[in-house]
Design a protein that fits this description.
Elements (H helix, E strand, L loop, with lengths): L2 H28 L6 E5 L2 E5 L10 E7 L6 E9 L5 E7 L9 E5 L5 E3 L1 E4 L4 E6 L2 H9 L3 E6 L6 E6 L4 H16 L1 H5 L1
Antiparallel strand pairs: 1-2, 2-3, 3-4, 4-5, 5-9, 6-7, 6-10, 8-9, 10-11
Length: about 190
């Protein structure tokens, strides 16, 4: 190898290293830790609090509205419990029959049922831990329904759930959670 070829190879390598380091530094320094973000993906949205809020996580949310009154009937949120495990939280309207609990059907899978955890001014809350079976049903992207009973007549009511955009929202959720938690992922 000639002297000129060695200098060109060293220069190209130094340029490449400089570009990679500059790109990584740009990612770390341009990430604003106080910014909150909400991004829509089909029927779902990813809501992330600022990275400065240590004990709060991003979540994937869908609000199901009444077609006539446009009031929220059910709020579905996928996120993490304080234990670190993933869960699907349902916030049901006040005035539901508490004893039977809530059922969730996705695609052709059997119904998953859960009891109400508590009721607040916002509604009655149900936590459904996401196991591998439920995660597979969510990933399959087949629409489903939430089934609950009204307090007055105890008749089952089925509310349709759309999984349109869920997989894109899940990818964004994982990416955004990683960026909130680690400077390494902010580089990328």
């Amino acid at each position: 190898m000639t002297n000129l070829t060695q200098k060109l190879a060293i220069g190209a390598l130094a340029l490449l290293i400089g570009l990679v380091v500059g790109w990584a530094v740009r990612g770390v320094t341009s990430y604003n830790t106080s910014t909150q973000a909400v991004t829509n993906y089909g029927s779902w949205r990813v809501a992330c609090p600022s990275a400065k809020q240590a004990n709060v996580n991003c979540e994937i949310v869908q609000d199901i509205l009444d077609s006539q009154s446009h009031e929220e009937i059910v709020r579905i949120a996928v996120g993490k419990l304080p234990t670190g495990k993933s869960a699907l939280d349902l916030v049901m309207p006040l005035g539901v029959a508490l004893e039977p609990g809530v059922g969730l059907v996705l695609g052709t899978n059997p119904m998953v049922t859960a009891k109400y955890r508590t009721c607040t001014q916002q509604g009655c809350i149900v936590d459904i831990p996401i196991d591998q079976k439920l995660q597979s049903a969510l990933d399959a992207g087949k629409d489903g329904k939430v089934v609950f009973a009204g307090a007055n007549d105890n008749k089952p009511i089925a509310i349709p759930v759309s999984l349109t955009g869920y997989n894109d929202a899940q990818r964004a959720y994982r990416r955004d959670e990683a960026k909130r938690a680690s400077w390494y992922w902010r580089m990328l």
